[in-house]
Structure formats: structure tokens, C-alpha cells
Amino acid sequence: MEHSGKKQETRKRIVVEDDGPYRVEGGIPLVMKSQVVSEYGEPLTWKTENRIPTEDVYYLCRCGQSHDFPFCDCTHGLIGFDGTETAPTDTFEERKQILAGGTGLVVKLDNTLCMNSGFCGNRLTNIKKMMPDTVEPRVRAEIIAMVERCPSGAYTYSMSENEPDIEPDLPEQIAVTTEITSDGAVRASYWVTGNIPIERADGQPFEIRNRVTLCSCGESSIKPLCDGIHRSLNHTKIS
Predict the structure, then answer these.
(1) pLDDT in tens, 113-125
(2) What pLDDT digit, counting tens, does each position of 55-84 carry?
(3) Residues near 191 by beta carbon (within 8 Å), at least 6 away in sequence
(4) Looking at the chain, which terminus has fewer C-beta neighbours within 10 angstroms, N or C?
(5) Do 176 and 82 have their domain in common?
(6) Domain final residue pick, 125, 158, 191
(7) Which of 10, 4, 14, 66 is nearest to 213 (CA)?
């Protein structure tokens, strides 16, 4: 039998280990990203700080207590981490609500995915308030920009009801994110982009999404997804 000599590539995927870390396979790039905010504290965009060197397979902390964060150092076993997964395994299409009032734009919301990142509004307005005025192209453009910056994918949009959702072109990568709050910087979620498959510890697959946020603090009520609770925890604060 002849061999090509080429190294077989590991399939890109993230596997949630039972009460343990995320096992990342396939050499998925890992980067650091920090939130950029306005002088009023409003989230504006994300800034990539650097790429973190990894192996083809690596393990990301899920309990939030690793001394080698973002990598797992097995602290989860010492603290009795409960990583029970409670996030739903149905689809966005089944859970979505369509926001009322749109003309020339259809905006959908799945509150299950929301982690309250704040990109869906500013001190003057927000997506829901703008929906009745989408007949105006400028308003449509502002809503689209807000939807595309939503890291969790809780918001999506299409130009009409019969068209598929339009998604931003995002790279296949995992971002270890830092958010800016009124109390300073906090260690936030893992932002997974580029339609990377995610599997539960019991082997069930989650719906493949272009963007999703995974809990990195260990305290989310919808594990493995992020629910934004990291903003209130002492161990996520960055001095």
C-alpha cells in the first residue's frame, strides 16, 4: 500500500469534556481580543491583540480558575467543578422571534444565545427602538452594523422573510476576550467564529453557527454558552 506522506489533518471541532475543559481539535487559531469602547463606555468593536501559540489539539479552561488561563491546568478536578450543560440543543430557527416594525429588513432574535455584550445599542438608541424606522436606509445600515457586531449571534438579519440570513465573514478561530466595564476590565467569554462544530460531553452536537460565545468563567447558567455573569465575578477581573 502506498502512502502519500502527507500528515492527516485533525477535523476542526470543539468538544466539551464532562465537568472538564474544552478540547479543541484541528489547530484552530487562538487569539486575544479586547473590547473597544466609546468615551461613554459603549462597546464599539473588537481589537485583536495577539495570536496565542497552540498545538493541533489543546485544552481551554472551562471552570475559570486555571492558573494557566486560558489553558486548562486541571484545577477543575480540585474544586469539584460542575460543568453540567443546560444550553438547548434545538435550533435558532425554532427559538427565534422576529422583531416587529421592519420594512426592508428582517431582524431575528434568540434570547437563549444573548450574553448582554451591549453591541445592540448605545446611549441614544438600540435595535428594537429603531425597527419601526427601517424604511430609512441609514437606519437599516445602523441596525445591520449592530447585528453583525453581536458576538453571540443572538441577533441575525435578512433583507426579506424568504431570504436566508446574511452573516458577516468571520475567520475560523477562537478569541479569548476582554471586556471593559464600569469597574474595569474583565475576562470574558471565548468567542468562537467561522462555523466551528461544538459537541456536548454526551456526544450531542450543537447547531453549527457562524458565531457563538462559550463560558470561560465556570458560572454560566446555560453552560457551555456564556450568559454574561463573568462581569459580576471577582475572579474574572483584570488588574
Answers:
(1) 999 999 999 999 9
(2) 999 999 999 999 999 999 999 999 999 999
(3) 33, 46, 151, 174, 175, 177, 211, 212, 213
(4) N
(5) yes
(6) 158
(7) 14
Mean pLDDT on 133-154: 96
6 in a structural domain: no
The burial class, CB within 10 Å (0-12 / 13-18 / 19+), for 184 is: exposed
Residue 128 has which C-alpha cell?
Answer: 428594537
E strand map for the chain: 13-16, 22-25, 30-37, 43-52, 58-60, 97-98, 106-109, 155-158, 173-181, 184-193, 198-199, 211-214
**Radius of gyration of the chain from its Cα atoms, rounded to whole angstroms:** 19
Question: What's the confidence (pLDDT) of residue 101?
Answer: 86
Q: Could you tell me the pTM of the whole model?
A: 0.93
Q: What is the mean pLDDT of residues 111-136?
A: 95
Domain of residue 154 covers 92-158
DSSP letter assigned to residue 39: T
Q: Domain count for the chain, please give it.
A: 2
